[in-house]
Amino acid sequence: MEAIQDATTEVRREARRSVIVVMRIGGEAMTAISGNDVREQLRKSAAILYVISTAGAQRAAPSQIRGTDNVSVQQGQLRDSELAESASNLALVLGDGAKDSGGHHDEVVSTTLVTSLERVADELLHQYEITYAVPDGAKPGDKLSVSSKRKGVTVHAPSRLPN
Fold this sequence. Notes:
The chain has 163 residues and is α/β, with parallel strands linked by helices. The protein has four helices and three strands; from the N terminus they run H-E-H-E-H-E-H.
């Protein structure tokens, strides 16, 4: 989460639409950062988020704090609860954040990792920039819908406009 949050502040300085590619194998540290805050920063940065996770990366390790006394059990339950909340925030950013930005989240096995990376590279190399202007007198909204009637064209676009 911290790496994605840091990347959103760095790419915001660029004058062009930036891309953040996350390659994930799991084992992330617990964090108190809000998933909604990171998604909002991602939206404001106008960067596209692509995530490639290895299969099973989303499973959090159970707490190692176990014992027979009530204090140890409560500590273990609290840690498990914190891990679950941290994992939920991460999933929110990696899944919904990627989709909202115009990117995507792929879960792969190690044998398809190269294929997935080639697909992301191909998408990045074959993108078109679409610009539009709000007509005079029209009130701009914060949601965006982009589509194409052209055969063979896939549209990946953010669902919300950056500020």
